[in-house]
User: What shape does this take?
Amino acid sequence: MRVRHCVGFPPPYRTRSPFSAPPRFAAWPAAVVAVAGIGLVLGVLFSSRVLASADSLALVEQGARAMEAREFETALQHFDSATRTDPGDAQAHFFAGAALNRLGRSAEALARFERVLLLSRLTGLAAPHPELDFERGFALVREQRHAEALAVLERYERDHPGRGQTAELTGRALIGLGRYDEAGVLLERAIERDPALAPTVQLARAAIASARGDVALATRALAEMPRSGPVGRHVEDAMARAPRTDSLRRGGAASVAVGRNSDAITILGDERVGVSGRQASDGFVRAGLSGYLAWRPQRWSVVASASLQTDDYFDASQIDQIDLGGSVSVDRLVGDRYSIGMSLSDRHTWVDGSRYLDQLSIGPQVGVRLGESVALAFEYRHRRDAYRDTPVLPQLDRDASVHQLGPRLDFRLNAGKLRLQLGSSYAAIDADGDDFDAGALGVNVLVSNEFTSRLRGRIYLSAEHRRFSDPNSLTGLSSKRRDRTYYVQAYAQYALAPALGLPGETSVFAQIDRSRRVSNIDFYDYDQTLFTMGLLVEF
Assistant: This one.
């Protein structure tokens, strides 16, 4: 969630609401931070100059006067002219970065500061400008590069102790890293050093309360803040967007698609479905409907979801499929970094109009946030597989009790648009039929990205090795079945323009599912590709 606000000088910064989780602070409304350092910066302009020409010196002086008058666009023009006049003028590059900082263009400011560092290394200067670390730290906090910002600001505090704005920025960096207790100490120190920082410090305190799950406290903290001054507009926007303590959200999606199955004999990832011999490829029509309800009272999260999908084949009606599923998950935040929860899911599958498989799964999970954008989760699932077409031969009874345990590491980068998930699992399968007792070890990788506001995609990869415990009845020998299964899914979705007059948020999508199983018993081999493309409406 992003809101815009003005902070007393143009242009408006972009920032996340303090109710985002985990909190990210691209650009807080710190007018005091933005302008209070100008006098000190300009005061040391000539004490540490490394200006290479009189022309660039004159241009920097003009820019300095514009900075003092808070005319930052004009100042930037003068500083840019100085860098063109003399590309080796480190001071001009520094002040161009400082002006960009005050214009909210922190990424560009960082590029200028890197140039200053490079020039200082080339010229052998130990300190190209005494305010460089402060300005870099300010820009790094805005860019959500909190670990780097913390290192730079701590160095600045060591060299220039006692500045209130340094403590405030350091506190914001610590909030971004999830170190809320330490952040609270720094925010208190910022107020002691400079009472004028009270509005932005109060906003930071509200963000900490929200991140800890106490939305009511965060809302009260915002309500106590004045609606005037450098943070007034931001407070109003944050209050308007803040969820209520007992917020209830809902959403859903409907889809219709056509597809083709390269090997119309199996359901993807399952055993053969009562069909002898090999079928040719066949097309199908797919329809789907899903929805969710999410309730988030303070430190709790309760999410319920349901989905329905049908596949109707043109010729291979023996694998016409209906999938109906639902789940409920409950999570509780514990402290600043931990969560515990429980989930329950139920899935029912019909094939060719007959009940085929019921799967009921339940289990706990524990999560820990390792850093600003990294989380680790451990989950256990107990699942019961109940097949409705159990063969007469008892050794072919696939009904099973499955115990599955595994960790999952989750990275969210680029303000949450890019996600990388790494997981592994071990499953113990205790089947009613001896042929299907097994242990399975698997690994998986998920990469998803929101490339633009309209285009998103994902790739999912998994591999599993399954070792069965007893000799397989198909061979008539003492051989035990060994399977290796590989699966890849690639998905792309493109949102259509609202001007087309389509309902909801309408997108076109395409998906490829590729699955291959290699077994030491040939009967269980399969190699299958599904391609699907269609229309998706989210509401």
